[in-house]
């Protein structure tokens, strides 16, 4: 799959970016199944993955990390895109009373 460069930088992303927003909502959330999804993406040339700490009620980044933990060498084959500083209402953060960006 072709890649697209970001500006004048050496950073290049795959033309298709796999979003993990609903990773924790999937029917199969076992680490091995998530790893299969990642491997399938990589085999198709999809090397860029969209993350945010809030995805899956703050669980998706950890789930993704656990899936690549056994073979961290694949981390060098991918680009991780993330967002932060979005504060959602969540049982994980009971002190938050207002959702804000």
3D architecture notes:
Strands 3-4-5 form a three-stranded parallel β-sheet, with no helix packed on it. A two-stranded antiparallel ribbon has the order 1-2. The chain has one domain (3-81). The chain has helices at 31-43, 55-58, 60-69, and strands spanning 3-5, 12-14, 17-19, 48-50, 79-81. The model has no long low-confidence stretch (mean pLDDT 90). Helix content is 27%, strand content 15%. It is α/β, with parallel strands linked by helices and 101 residues long. It has three helices and five strands; from the N terminus they run E-E-E-H-E-H-H-E.
Task: Give a topology summary.
Layout: E1 3-5, E2 12-14, E3 17-19, H1 31-43, E4 48-50, H2 55-58, H3 60-69, E5 79-81
Parallel strand pairs: 3-4, 4-5
Antiparallel strand pairs: 1-2
Task: Give a quick set of tags describing it.
two-stranded antiparallel sheet, 3 helices
What percentage of amino acids are in beta strands? 5-15%
| Largest sheet entry | 3 strands, parallel
For the largest sheet, list the strands in their spatial order.
Answer: 3-4-5
Unreliable stretches? none
């Amino acid at each position: 799959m072709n890649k697209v460069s970001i500006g004048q930088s050496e950073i290049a992303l795959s033309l298709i970016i796999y979003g993990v927003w609903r990773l924790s909502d999937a029917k199969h959330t076992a680490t091995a199944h998530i790893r299969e999804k990642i491997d399938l993406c990589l085999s198709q040339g999809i090397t860029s993955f969209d993350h945010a700490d809030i995805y899956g009620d703050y669980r998706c980044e950890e789930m993704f990390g656990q899936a690549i933990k056994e073979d961290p060498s694949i981390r060098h084959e991918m680009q991780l895109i993330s967002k932060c500083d979005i504060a959602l209402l969540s049982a994980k953060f009971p002190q938050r009373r207002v959702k804000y960006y």
